[in-house]
Amino acid sequence: MDRESTPVISQLPLSAVRETGVNLNRPECVLGTAAGDLYVSDKAGGIRHIQPGGSARLIGAQAGLIPNGFALLRDGSFAIANLADNGGIWRVQRDGAAAPHIMEIDGVGLPSVNFVWLDDQERLWICVSTVRKGDHQFRRDIADGFIAVHDRHGTRVVAQDVHWTNECRMDPTGTYLYVNETFGRRLLRFRVAPNGDLSERSVITEFGKGTYPDGMAIDETGHIWVISVVSNRVIRVSPRGEQQLLLEDGDPAHIEKLETEYLANRLSRPLLYDNHSKKLQNITSIAFGGPDRKTAFLGCINGSSLAVFDSPVAGLKPVHWNW
Questions:
Q1: Is the pTM of this model over 0.90?
Q2: Average pLDDT of 245-255?
């Protein structure tokens, strides 16, 4: 299929959304595999493994570790972005043992880390949203986030001055890296050099009122599925920046209140976490799973389960798919 084409996908009703998983604890990020396993971050300090039959177990429960984004590694362990103040990337083994993995870059400690992603070359991409703490970080006039890459040569910063860096993904050709700027309300694109350096920074699209781009995934046609926290939106973006709203579950009055606070640089964590919806519980991420990668799983920060819907387009196969 032409990756520049934009197949028409009808907007989904909320009735098309079902649930899976129970008793989850802030399942912000979710990954799926070909075997039918699901892995979700768990606020208890580890990764919740949901097996194909539905049973689940917690892998790790490390004090001081607040898992946000995470990557499944070839040996079955997990690289976890630590949202807690002690920050860094942690490694959690299958037996639950946890230890610091990447805690500094050029002698400077990594602060709270939002996201980590493994590419097809098994490089780790690290997204730090901001070096600020508290409610002073959710501002539209601050761009102190950065992106780093970890490979066999070490760890280095490859992009700076990003406006609240969130999730990132590579396009199907490995040519470009996409990055969400949550409180800049933009989707960025960088050209990726063979050594992992980033250049040719550009804005692919800007989002409007009520959209705060958080998680993302790429489908097999090269389109980017962007998740908006708070407004519970799923937006499919073409490589040219065309947007199509696929799913939404937000309260207009709450979104209006957020817009006022956002424009005044007064956004607070309680307001961002306060959910006003019918079904979706403040969704934050998306992963394609199922035998044909046409089942979309939505991570969230308020719910205790995952929202699920069927997609007419398959997701791009992640590097960990057959692990």
A1: yes
A2: 97
